[in-house]
Design brief:
With about 425 residues, the chain is largely without helices or strands. It has helices at about 5, 15-30, 240-260; strands at about 10, 45, 125-130, 135-140, 350-355, 360. The protein has 3 helices and 6 strands.
Length: about 425
Amino acid sequence: MDAAQSVAGRRRLSQAELDMIVTAHEKFVTGKQGGKRASLRFVQLSGLDLSFRNLVDADLTASILEGCRLVRTKLDRASLFGCDLRKSDMRQASLVRADLRGACLRGANLAQADLTQADFREGQIAIPHPRKGLDTLRHETRQGEVDEVNFSGATLDGSQFEGVSAFKADFSDCSLRGAKLSGANLKEANLAGAILDNADVKGANLEGANLCGAVMANVDTSAARVSGASMNGALGASTREAVAKAQELYKRATDNQLWCQTGGKEGQAARLDGEDLRPLGDKLKGLRLTAMSAKGACMVGLDLSGAQLQGANLTGADLRAANLRGADLRGARLAGANLTKADLRQAFLSPLPLGPDRRTPATLQGARIRYAAAQTADLSEAILDGADLRGSDLTGARVARASFRDVDLNAVQGLDLSMP
């Protein structure tokens, strides 16, 4: 299909016309007077700007959005069926359960987008006649295409990629839990650090793919093509031994709580260094784990929300996608820890008072905190020297007197270092 055909039969909208339609749609979505659902089927929108707009449930079927700006646009449940989204800028857009069947996204930027349960499978596309336009349509089955798309740091849990071409796509540090990737072409794709727990890769082409450090619990690669794929440091499911040990480790954690509750008279501080704590799931949620030691522990995906971890030693721990929302980490040691895609909202990482004139700061030197949610976290006086914070959201976070020497702040949101 040539470029002339792809544009034929499609009405070209100006930015002003598009803005009027989207404003009416936003009124419709919020229940305001004068609202009207956007119907933007078969229109030519290439190069226009829809950033920060609300297009939830909008119909953009088979439209041309090549090179569009859609930064942080809300497109949840929108129909983008058969759209041309090549080279579009969709960073941090929300596309939860969006219909992207048969869409072409080649070279698009979807870094940090939320594509939970989005559908990228093939679709039957209606092609307008080059001269007669929409009066004469022919149907063509088109494979979903995300070749060379940047999905770094995106959330793709439960998304449908069956049979999709994702050649050389960048899925680094993505969450692809339960994603359907059967028959997908992931040749030479970058899946470094991706969380692929329970993903279906049956019949997928992973030749030459980079899966270094990927989390692959319950991922069966036996029916996938993996020649030349790099899986150094990939993390599989918990071993039988780790599962069998879970009860004992939980007892150590509850002993830590007892130790806190009795002022050290009963129980003791837990020693969990190097242990795989994933089988504990959400059992540590809200526990008093002050002074616990879990150096180098595997804590991927753990629910530690509301846990009291004051002065805990989590040096080098793997806390990717862990839920630390509202956790008390005052004075905790997190140097070299991996907190990629962790939830640190409302977490306390300020100094821990040890006496009238003594306090110990939270230390995160060299920690990997990519794409973390740290809105309204308290990082006062925290030592973050050499940390990798790229893509993290620190909107509303307190960073007074925190140390940010040699920190990677690329694409960080909401960080105001001018605040006292």
